Amino acid sequence: MSKQINVALIGNPNTGKTSVFNALTGLKQKVSNYPGTTVDKKEGVCKLPRGLKAHIIDLPGTYSLNASSLDENVVVELLLNKTDKNYPDVAVIVTDVENLKRNLLLFTQIKDLRIPTVLVINMADLMKRRGISLNIPLLEEKLNTRIALISTRQNLGIDSLKEIINNYKSISTDPCLDTSRIDPEYFDNLKQAFPNQDLYKLWLVISQDANFGRMSRKTLDIEKFKTKSISELKRLQQKETIKRYQFINSVLKVGQTIDTTKATGLRARLDRILTHKVWGYVIFFVILLTIFQAIYDWATVPMDFIDGAFASLSHWLKTVLPAGIATNLLAEGIVPGLGGILIFIPQIAFLFLFISVLEESGYMSRVVFLMDRVMRRFGLSGKSVVPLISGTACAIPAVMATRNIENWKERLITILVVPFTTCSARLPVYLIIIALVIPEGRFLGLSYQALSLMFLYILGFGSAVFSAFLLDKVLKIQRKSYFVIEMPNYKIPLFRNVLITVVEKTKAFVFGAGKIILAISIILFVLASTGIGRQFNNADYIVRMEVAGENLSEEEIETRIASHKLEHSLIGVAGKAIEPVIQPLGYDWKIGIAIICSFAAREVFVGTLATIYSVGQDDEDTIKNRMKKEINPVSGVPLFNFASGISLLLFYAFAMQCMSTLAIVKKETNSWLWPMAQLVFMTALAYLVALIVYQFLK
Amino acid sequence: MINEIIQTILVISAMLVATVFLIYKFVVSPKRKKATKECGHDDCGC
Q1: A326, B42: Cβ pair inside 8 Å?
Q2: How does pLDDT run across A432-474, given as a tens digit for each residue?
Q3: B35 touches chain A (CB under 8 A)
Q4: Cβ A519–B18 below 8 Å, yes or no?
Q5: pLDDT over threshold 70, residue A558
Q6: Of A453-462, A636-645, A656-665, where does the model show the most confidence?
Q7: Which architecture, in CATH terms, is A1-263?
């Protein structure tokens, strides 16, 4: 077996660290969480020259080793814990050629931990345009390390980086800064108290206490040595930073030259337009419109293909498998249930494709900046923007992302309003209902359906912001968190990065809900095919007697029998019991069952309806057609009409239909009070809005 | 007859597996993952 080494990929945010990770590992990567935390852990394997293998860990972006968030703390914890199985044999520090000075701070800190440290200078393709030239041999000498000048965009220097990693043992582990120079007296005492420990590591363990850290100090009796107050420790940290920058300045003075006349002002000009107080919002609005229109225009063909393929698969299964209840389960339960969710893959993939392009291009940071202005007017700081925007993918990581908000009340408000933002699980519900009740016409080249979808996204974000405004009045936040965001340079998105994001997110969407939908489809099918009592068991006889006078074809009679059996099956009886509650909203018992099942995950709604409508029905029909054919037995009009459809869309826009979000809110607030309040408030609001809208529109 | 028995067994098995999965997913698993540390401790994450 070939030898494997641990390589930690570390760097400031926006240095192209993930691009380096992708370039090294390709698709051989997996994402999990750091133990006990909710911070993403990305790992991958890279083959190095001469048979050596590297286990690459992409650590969260951090500006320094003075941790101020949970993400940064993960980096510090790993680098200080030699017993950790992921403790790096070599640290690869990724820097951006345009921000080398700031990026080198982290490099000097990690090098001082005496870990073999490689410096990667990324985005080398921008050097000429920005008038930057580097004397690499001199920089290597001054920084006492090996440097890889690379460009992930042009795939340059990756092989040389692999070669350097391969020879990591030859890299000097001498520190850049003599730690005791920070405060000779203090560090002298520290050295005497712990003679066998590395001085800089000790200092990091002690100084983390002044910040956010959750460092375990059990092994070191540091508490006894805490001779300085927190403010004094912070002052020493600042002194350390100044000393490091003095060192960095002296190195760059000789190793780097920047011809400012060559640097273009394109970024500044773009920023002036894209973050303009009026045009910035107009451009963002136009981009949103384009995205939603494209989602509709591009996804229709693959969606129709998937829908048709699943309908044919059901039919084919019934033809080739022996007749019986298990065949029916497969053809009428599992296949339509899964098809009900898989048809949304094209639209989900396109949505994440656009989001990924916006992130990769650097535009998303400008959106966060724009939203910060709006948020402040509603009583929230910009720190709430990131959770609210990430809530468009899923509320769970968004709730976790609130951990960066220091002020508890502000954090609580953000947690409580995040579920209003339109998550990807709402998307299938919106898409199917919009397709059924919104006409296909266009207004100024934009389809009504795309406009409706965009309206729902804006409604979700607007509801979150408005609720935050109300909660701010009730909870009265005295002190707001400050918000600092780095504006990365504009870049042409890397196709490989975009592709990996789209594949990962789509996979998470399909497999996350897929297993639940599969299980629910099986249970629903069994409950829909089983019944007790005369009405279910003698359905055939009862229906034939009822229609004896009518001139119906055998096929119509069979449909009526299936419908009668379903109505008197176990699921039918349960659905009928809750029907009085949901009837005023324009829904029947089948929708009621789908709403209840979708409490497990919102997208289950579509899978549930697909299963219920498939039981005993024509197996070659698509899900959309089946839903379109449903007739409200009370009014005689199509069940999914404009009034009931809009009512359903608004119900899902406001309702807290997600058990997992409730569980994570409980975990984050450490109380059942807040998730329960959230559940009651959001459900009551959803019911009320859906009721008013249906009664008004019907 | 055999076909009917086999198909019934398959459906019952699938139903049992599905039920156990959902119970594990939404009842057992969240309890296991329950936070052991109260808020205010070093690693509560607040």
Answers
A1: no
A2: 899 889 988 888 778 888 899 999 999 999 999 899 888 888 8
A3: yes
A4: yes
A5: yes
A6: A453-462
A7: 3-Layer(aba) Sandwich (3.40)
Using DSSP's 3-state secondary structure scheme, residue A81 falls into coil
- What number is the ipTM of this complex? 0.77
Long-range contacts, A445-451 (Cβ 8 Å, 24+): A445/A293, A446/A289, A446/A293, A447/A293, A447/A296, A447/A297, A449/A296, A450/A289, A450/A292, A450/A293, A450/A295, A450/A296, A450/A297, A451/A289, A451/A292
- Plot region of A352 (φ>0 → left; ψ -120 to 50 → alpha; else → beta): alpha
Give burial (CB, 10 Å; 0-12/13-18/19+) of A460: buried
| B42 to A214: CB separation less than 8 angstroms, yes or no | yes
For residue A327, which residues of chain B lie inside 8 Å, CB to CB? Answer: 7
Say yes or no to pLDDT of A694 above 90: yes
What is the Cα–Cα distance from A568 to A565, expressed in whole angstroms? 5
Cβ distance of A326 and B7 shorter than 8 Å: yes
- Eight-state DSSP code of residue A638: B
What confidence tier does A105 reach under pLDDT thresholds 50, 70, 90?
very high
Domain boundaries, chain A: 1-263, 279-424+445-475, 500-697
B11 to A659: CB separation less than 8 angstroms, yes or no? no
SS3 A42: strand
Task: Give the model's pLDDT for residue B37.
Answer: 40
- Chain A residues in contact with chain B using a Cβ-Cβ cutoff of 8 Å: 36-38, 70, 214, 322-327, 329, 403, 408, 411, 515-516, 518-520, 522-523, 526, 600, 659, 663, 667-668, 670
Q: Give the range among A34-48, A342-356, A514-528 with minimum mean pLDDT.
A: A34-48
Cβ-based contacts of A37 with chain B (< 8 Å)? 45
pLDDT digits 0-9 by tens, A577-613: 888 999 899 888 888 888 888 877 787 788 788 777 7
Q: How far away is chain B from the Cα of A434, in angstroms, using its nearest Cα?
A: 30
- Lowest pLDDT segment from A275-279, A406-410, A591-595: A406-410
Cross-chain residue pair A214–B43, CB shorter than 8 Å = yes
A-chain residues near B38 (CB < 8 A): 670
* Cα-based angle A622, A626, A627 (whole degrees, multiple of 5): 120
Q: Which residues pair with A133 in a beta bridge?
A: A257
Cβ within 8 Å, pair A522-B15: yes
Q: How many CB atoms lie within 10 A of CB A367?
A: 21
